[in-house]
User: Which sequence fits this backbone?
């Protein structure tokens, strides 16, 4: 099967549909990917508007997909950051945050068990574990709660 980059005859619409068949894309992501295949930005905007009207392009589905795939490994801050980078609106992110925060402690516990699994032996180990969990996007309150629980 020929690559879509090798065939300049493939329409912008066909390229976009092929991408959306693989996974959900935000409007910004799809715009960036399609920009290489046209010199007319208006063509992309018209196409994306049409896809949104038809329900083929959905910000809500992108939010659901990203949160479902990331919630077991990352904290709410990291997921929100990823959604912002994908061009998701603040309203959609704010709507997703309460559910993420409800499951954040359990997600942090799972990540901590998989990575460390043992109570920090000293302050240095504790700081290292805290930094790791912060890097995964967990809030400091959640991390402190988790480490307090495992130390007891």
Assistant:
């Amino acid at each position: 099967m020929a690559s879509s980059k090798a065939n300049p005859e493939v329409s912008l619409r066909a390229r976009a549909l092929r991408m959306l068949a693989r996974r959900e894309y935000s409007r910004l992501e799809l715009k960036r990917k399609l920009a290489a295949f046209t010199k007319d930005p208006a063509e992309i905007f018209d196409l994306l508007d049409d896809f949104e009207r038809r329900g083929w392009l959905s910000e809500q589905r992108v939010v659901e997909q990203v949160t479902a795939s990331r919630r077991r490994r990352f904290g709410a801050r990291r997921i929100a950051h990823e959604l912002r980078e994908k061009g998701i609106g603040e309203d959609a992110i704010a709507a997703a945050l309460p559910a993420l925060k409800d499951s954040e402690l359990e997600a942090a516990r799972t990540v901590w068990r998989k990575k460390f699994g043992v109570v920090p032996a000293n302050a240095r180990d504790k700081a290292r574990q805290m930094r790791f969990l912060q890097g995964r996007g967990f809030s400091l309150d959640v991390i402190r709660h988790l480490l307090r629980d495992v130390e007891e």
Summary: The chain has two domains: 12-57, 60-151. DSSP finds nine helices and no strands in the chain.
